[in-house]
Amino acid sequence: MNDWAPIAKEYDPLKAGSIDGTDEEPHDRAIWRAMLARYVPNKGVTGDPHLTLFVARLNLQTTEEKLKEVFSRYGDIRKIRLVRDLVTGFSKGYAFIEYKEERALLKAHRDANRLVIDQHEVFVDFELERTLKGWIPRRLGGGFGGKKESGQLRFGGRDRPFRKPINLPNVKNDFYGEGSAEKRNWSREGTRDWRTRDRDRERSREKRWPERERSSDWGDSERERDSKEERSRGRERKDRDR
């Protein structure tokens, strides 16, 4: 628990698929794909990864000029790379923005997340492909994205951090006399008290038993007396009627 953190320090597809990072078996096929993948970061990407922001959930109509207009408020931008489809040339809805200073990067990371650009609420985080060890992109079953209806949810990122796991204390079972000598003596004394209590109960039951018999006999005599009185009253009524 001392090493626990809500944000992943090293990417593990199995942990990323768990709400608290404690799963031991994959629960969907995408995790299997990510665990079997041998991904190597794109060597053609240039720039400082520690000064680069990842901007996702963009409107497909958003251009580089619009991104520069919005993100230049936080500091000087060195480079903007809007990821496009190689065949169609259309935007894929995410981009990478490299700043010149770390101060501008941190300010944009803090203030630009959930900013509305072209009627879309964007998601802003640090670049993870070259900074997070073991990173697997979502197209291979990894990442920190995913939708609930598709069954692929990933945790450990800024959008969905890990929940703190519940740790129950390990209580040692002393039912068979395990533990210290004091506990064993206490348990023996407890058994003695238990036996003496049972003996006292048995004796008290034996004492109360004749009293119950007497009370039951007394109750039977009372019932017989009442029944006799009722019979005599019934006879008197019959005599009067005659």
From TrEMBL:
It comes from Penelope pileata. InterPro entries: Nucleotide-bd_a/b_plait_sf, RBD_domain_sf, RRM_dom, snRNP35_RRM, U1_U11-U12_snRNP_70-35kDa. Residues 147-162 have a biased composition (Basic and acidic residues). It is found in: Nucleus. It comes from the Eukaryota. The lineage of its organism: Eukaryota, Metazoa, Chordata, Craniata, Vertebrata. Residues 51-129 form the RRM domain. Keywords: Nucleus, RNA-binding. It holds the Pfam family RRM_1. This is U11/U12 small nuclear ribonucleoprotein 35 kDa protein.
